[in-house]
Design a protein that fits this description.
Strands 1, 2, 3, 4, 5, 6, 7, 8 and 9 form a nine-stranded antiparallel sheet that branches. The chain has a single domain, classed as Electron Transport, Fmn-binding Protein, Chain A (Pnp Oxidase, Chain A, Roll), CATH 2.30.110. It is α+β, with helices and mostly antiparallel strands.
C-alpha cells in the first residue's frame, strides 16, 4: 500500500479522476519498452485494465509483470506575456504509477473490476454476459510506487511528489 500525505493523495486522485485514458509501459520479448494506450478504472490505490484474452501485451506481461502506468490531465496552453515565446508553457498534472500486473481469473472479481473500469466513465450500472466476463482479460495493478507532478506553472507553484 502506498503511503502519501492527504495533499498528495488529493492531487493524485483528482488527476487520475480527470483522465479518460492511461498509457501502460511494459517490456517486450526483446527487452525493449512497449507502451499502449488503455482505458482503465481506479479504486483504492489499484488500477484495473482490460483487454482481449490474447495478444502481444499478454505474452510480455506473463514473462515480466512489471508495468509503468502514466496518466496526464488535459493540458492548457498558458503564458506570462503573449508576445514573449519563452513565457509560454503547457499546464497540467501527470501521475506515474509502478506495479505488477496480476491477471484476475475469478468471475465475481472480474465483474467488480469491470464495474470499477466503467465507473471511470459513467455512473450507469451494467450487467455482463457470462461469455463476456469469461473471455475478457482483466488486469489488476496494485500501485507500489507513485509520483505526481503539476507542470507548466511558475516554479514556486510547482509540486512534485514521489512515494
Amino acid at each position: 500500500m502506498v503511503t502519501i500525505t492527504t495533499e498528495e493523495h488529493e492531487i493524485i486522485e483528482k488527476a487520475i479522476g480527470e483522465c479518460k485514458e492511461c498509457f501502460v509501459g511494459m517490456i517486450d520479448s526483446e527487452g525493449l519498452p512497449y507502451v499502449i494506450p488503455m482505458n482503465f478504472g481506479y479504486k483504492e490505490d489499484t488500477v484495473y485494465l482490460h483487454s482481449g484474452s490474447e495478444g502481444s501485451s499478454i505474452g510480455f506481461l506473463e514473462n515480466n509483470p512489471n508495468v509503468c502506468i502514466t496518466f496526464c490531465t488535459d493540458t492548457e496552453l498558458t503564458h506570462q506575456n503573449k508576445e514573449v515565446a519563452c513565457s509560454y508553457r503547457v499546464r497540467g498534472t501527470s501521475v506515474i504509477c509502478r506495479g505488477k500486473v496480476v491477471f484476475v481469473e475469478d468471475f465475481d472479481e472480474k465483474v467488480k473490476a469491470l464495474n470499477v473500469i466503467m465507473s471511470q466513465y459513467t455512473t450507469d450500472a451494467f450487467k455482463y454476459s457470462d461469455p463476456a466476463v469469461v473471455n475478457v482479460k482483466v488486469w489488476k495493478v496494485e500501485i507500489e510506487r507513485v509520483s505526481a507532478r503539476i507542470f507548466g506553472v511558475p516554479y514556486k507553484e510547482s509540486h512534485q511528489y514521489n512515494k
